[in-house]
């Protein structure tokens, strides 16, 4: 949004008494299908959304980078030599948000890229803690900021930027996520979904049919306990693959799974069943989307939610409520929780002509049932992280 661009530019001028050299935009993401399969080498179908982190930055003459989070009125400084180590982080030398830029600076250095000192201010309208990947957006924003300052060409290396972000998250911040969120933020394309093979990292863009919109509904339930439960799910999948003699659940065909599932403890079998079926659903969904068969695509979204609720057990009563209401409303083809679960948002595929009334009715009925104040966004799939040089 242009007003965020103006806002960071003005904050930069005020803070550093000069004009920024670069403006960067890095979006959040929503996932349409392929949930909890990226860390099983499966297929995912996310899209970048029109809510983003905006950064204004310049190369700095100081030996350290200075970063200001406008929304939180907090500022940190570090250089390549003084980035807190992972062990330092336990003593909390950095506010939570600053771990993401520090993590990407660390990952860039580890991979042998230059991280020149920068002055930067940033703001974001990606809701935090809602499962729309606000942290991946911060990561892709700052990888871009350091690369812009180092003179890297913007059009090269979007997937490399995603991998650097994932490395920061896994090895620096300490969250064991897959590649999907950073990939979507880095590689998004306006009005397209992105189809990624998380094993080969090959990907394609799929045009979204014209008559539909993506509606995101935030339950106003913060994602709680998600890190430990997420790690438990990951371990269950690894255990299932091991017991089935496969490298990962990507390699287990549905027929083989059903033939052999008795070899798995009951809970592990349920987790694995979600993953094996979800990989198949996502592969099918791409054919349907290309044909413009939104009804059948929406049915797969519904199946995905039911599976996340019953087999993978990452839903919660409010997410189920939001999904159940949505499915009763006119124009809704499919509704499901999106992202890791345990609170956060649902994603809905809705006929364009019904979107406004759908959004209003969903918010109204959800608030009436739960006494919580939801937020409903009619979204547009957007381009991935990008920067532009401001001409002096
Ligand atoms: C989180 C992780 C992703 C992915 C999803 C679940 O968003 O960061 O890598 O595993 O959960 O699909």
What features would you describe in this structure?
The chain is of the alpha+beta class and 392 residues long. The protein has 12 helices and 12 strands. It has helices spanning 2-16, 86-89, 99-110, 134-149, 158-173, 180-187, 226-243, 254-260, 266-291, 294-310, 317-328, 355-370, and strands spanning 22-33, 43-59, 65-69, 74-78, 118-124, 192-197, 203-207, 212-218, 332-337, 345-351, 375-379, 386-389. Strand 9 and strand 10 (345-351) form a beta hairpin. The radius of gyration is 21 Å and the shape is globular. The model has no long low-confidence stretch (mean pLDDT 95). The protein binds alpha-D-galactopyranose. Alpha-D-galactopyranose binds at residues 35-36, 38-39, 177-178, 180-181, 339-340. Alpha-D-galactopyranose is lined by residues 35-36, 38-39, 177-178, 180-181, 339-340.
